[in-house]
Amino acid sequence: MYFGDLDPSGKDMPRVLNEKFKELEVENLEVIEVALNKHDIQKHNLPKNPFKPKDTRNKWYFEKYGIDYAVELDALEPDILEEKIRDSISEFVNLKALKKCKINDMLEIAEWNRIIVETKK
What we know:
about 120 residues, elongated, 5 helices, mainly alpha, 2 domains
């Protein structure tokens, strides 16, 4: 999952990552863009910034996304970003099952700690 700025370099990053994965012969990996997107900008009324004038990807970005501004990921409120991360992860991971595993792990650790303490007596 990729969370990045809505700007030429941020939107080009998935392409760069995919190229690097290919160079490293990493297979069966998909970069999924989660944020930022136009919907996030409108929904959360995020501040728009001008392009970096020397970025050579400005033309490509405008042609592909039809916008002439940039928005930083860190403009999202932390709780909104956390929610987006949690929601994205929950599409691939059963969070209830994961929580149950964590609880079981904590119980097992506590039991091993009890055994260690008893053994030292």
